[in-house]
Known about the structure:
Protein name: Peptide deformylase
Oligomer: single chain
InterPro entries: Peptide_deformylase (IPR023635), Peptide_deformylase_sf (IPR036821)
Keywords: Hydrolase, Iron, Metal-binding, Protein biosynthesis
Bound molecules: zinc ion
GO molecular function: metal ion binding; peptide deformylase activity
GO biological process, one term: translation
Largest sheet: 5 strands, antiparallel
Helix content: 10-25%
CATH class: Alpha Beta
Strand order of the largest sheet: 1-2-3-6-7
Shape: globular
Number of domains: 1
Amino acid sequence: MAVLPVLVYPDKRLKIPSVPLEQNEPGWEQMLSGLIDTFERAPGCVGISAPQVGWHKRVIVVDASRSSRVSPDSVNHGMMVCINPEIVCTSGKLRFREGCLSVPDFTGNVYRSKKITVRYLDRSFNEQVIETQGFEAVIFQHEIDHLDGILFLDRVRSLKRDVFKRQTYLPPSE
Ligand code: ZN
C-alpha cells in the first residue's frame, strides 16, 4: 500500500476519538500496512497513530530508534506496532519538547510521565506488556493521546511560552 495523506492541524478529524480495533475488522491489515509505509517514509518520524491518516482505530506505531534523541537512560524497544494500547501504570514526570507530523510548523514543551507500563496487542493480536521510560515513554504518551483526539498543543501549559514556531523546516520528530 502507498503512503497515506497525513491530516494536519486544525483538521477537525484529529479531534475524533478512535475506537478499538477488532481482529475481524475487514481490511485492517491493509490499513495497517499503509500506516507503516506512511511512518517509514516520514524522515525522522518516531511515532504515528492511525487517526492521523484518517483511520479512527486505536493503533499506533512507535520506533524510538529512528531518532538521535535516545539518551543512555532511555529504553528503546525498536519498532512496535501496538493495537489497542493502554497505559496501565505511570510514575515520575519529565518535560519534553515535542513535535508532531500533524502539527508541522510548531514544537511545544509538554509534561509527561517519566516511566510507564503499556499493555497492547501486537500484530498477531497477542497481548504484550512493556515497561519503558524517557524518550520512548514520551512517544507512547503522545501517540496514545492522538487516539483520544488530543494533540500536544492541548497539553502545553501556555500557548505563549511553551509553543515554538519552527524557524526552518526540520523533519517532524514525533
Ligand atoms: Zn503527533
